[in-house]
Specification:
It is built from 12 helices and 14 strands. By secondary structure, it is an alpha/beta fold. The strands form 4 sheets. The protein has an 8-stranded parallel beta barrel with strand order 3-4-5-10-11-12-13-14, surrounded by 5 helices. The mean pLDDT is about 95.
């Protein structure tokens, strides 16, 4: 199947993209002390020059003591940190690209470096990293309010620096997602509830604060997932009705676009329909959606992070769903991490030149 639908322009709320391909956010840990440098700027510029429609940055920490769990993950606050991000967006613009930073708070997720710890306590909804596993302490009302303000301040910085949009990381078992999940949110105050829309209040309050900070016309994306890194089989919403209630709470609060993360984009979300997560999200809310999950490669990305090699795979099913209108944009991770020219090669039909993904690519900023 021709890849033409991938290369149709997309315009929404001031965001104008040359094609439907998004560079998925991928943690790289190449920012010494949390400050992005010229190597990072060059890494993103090469993707802009490679014709990626929208680049979403790796997760970058908001202004809370333990928002990141790695000393070399970038931050999105502080004079030197923001100066570094200004160099990044200027480089992307010089390469003809469009970019959104992904604003991140890891919550109750410990880092892999046993020699390093964050300069303050971990933030958690209920002092749990997973069901029954104690970790940290429940956030106080003041800490919740400060975290909300930190996301809003970072979004305002993104707009001021010249980024075309902003994305909130609300997926994969990190802080916002820990509030969504009844396995890690057992609060009995306004940020806890037995129902999913009630547990979505933290995300909704962040979205409202972000919207106030950036104004009505600036695109705000939120990345969400059913699965958690703590448990791949978790489903927050087990029916379309539950999903509609959850996602409507987010769009009503100010989310313009939903970035729907699943491990394999072709897997149906509910029985009786072949719609995937992004397909259902668009059907239920009417807002634009981004699909993601093992696009263009064999093997899914979790195994790949563990060292499994993947080979190029057909895009026919992806294009069929996009052409049908299931979703609006397609996020590609490993294929673009491996090869900054992936978009151009797909557009020009140079399938023989598409590269295998090798986890060794994680060791460099190619």
């Amino acid at each position: 199947m021709a890849a033409d639908p991938l290369f149709q322009p997309f315009a929404f709320k001031g965001l104008t993209l040359k094609n439907r391909i998004v560079m998925a956010p991928m943690t790289r840990s190449f920012s010494p002390g949390g400050v992005v440098n010229e190597d990072v700027a060059g890494y993103y510029r090469r993707r802009a020059e490679g014709q990626v429609g929208l680049i979403i940055s790796e997760g970058t920490g908001v202004n809370r003591p333990a928002s990141v769990n790695d000393k070399n993950v970038p931050r999105f606050y502080g004079e030197s940190e923001l100066a570094g991000w200004k160099r990044v967006i200027d480089a992307v613009h010089a390469g003809g690209g469009t970019m959104a930073p992904q604003l991140w708070h890891v919550g109750a997720v410990r880092g892999r470096d046993t020699e390093w710890s964050p300069p303050g306590p971990y933030d958690t909804p209920s002092g749990l990293s997973r069901p029954g596993k104690e970790f940290g302490k429940p956030m106080t009302d003041a800490e919740v309010a400060d975290a909300i303000a930190a996301f809003a301040a970072a979004a305002a910085h993104a707009k001021d620096l010249g980024f075309e949009a902003v994305e909130l990381h609300g997926a994969h078992g990190y802080l916002i997602d820990q509030f969504f999940w009844d396995g890690t949110n057992v609060r009995e105050d306004a940020y806890g509830s037995k129902d999913l829309p009630g547990r979505a209040r933290f995300a909704a309050d962040i979205l409202k604060a972000v919207r106030k900070a950036v104004g009505p016309d600036y695109p705000v994306i939120i990345r969400i997932s059913q699965w958690k890194q703590q448990d791949y089989d978790v489903k927050l919403a087990t029916t379309p009705k539950e999903m509609e209630a959850w996602l409507t709470a987010l769009t009503d609060a100010g989310a313009d676009m939903l970035h729907c993360s699943q491990r394999r984009f072709w897997e149906p979300e509910f029985e009786g329909s072949d719609l995937n997560f992004a397909g259902w999200a668009k059907k239920l809310t009417g807002v634009p959606t981004i699909t993601v999950g093992s696009v263009g490669l064999t093997g899914e990305f979790i195994a790949a992070w563990g060292g499994e090699q993947s080979k190029p795979a057909s895009l026919d099913e992806l294009v069929r769903r996009l052409d049908r209108g299931d979703f609006d944009l397609v996020a590609v991770g490993r294929a673009i991490l491996q090869d900054p020219e992936w978009v151009v090669k797909v557009k020009e039909g140079r399938e023989a030149e598409l590269m295998n993904y090798d986890a060794k690519a994680l060791a460099t900023l190619s």
